[in-house]
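Data card: per-record layout.
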Amino acid sequence: MTPSHRENWTPVCTTRDILPDTGVCALVDGRHVAVFRIGDDRFYAIDNVDPRSGASVLARGLVGSLGERVVVASPLYKHHFDLATGECLEAPEHSVRTHAVRSDNGQLLVALH
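The structure for this 113-residue chain is written out next.
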């Protein structure tokens, strides 16, 4: 990886801080980010702000699946956001950004995209 392509990884919590199939909110470089744990070892990070309402609530949404997609349902308008792509399934114009997330010795780190 060349220096110009290095990501800035920010520690947000430990893997134990997130129960399986739930999310937490973290502030990363001034951006509200929702970090989700799916099962024991899959992690996703998306913007936490619901684009329709402007409220920072996606981390509190219900996690599930629609077909092959792992999604979170916004607690406000019930729109479903694909955790891998950020796409809003009901209204693609309300899609959110995804961010890189990784585990390093039990510590979760996020890099904004």
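Known properties of this structure: The longest strand covers residues 31-38. Confidence is low (pLDDT under 50) at residues 1-5.

See the next section for split statistics.
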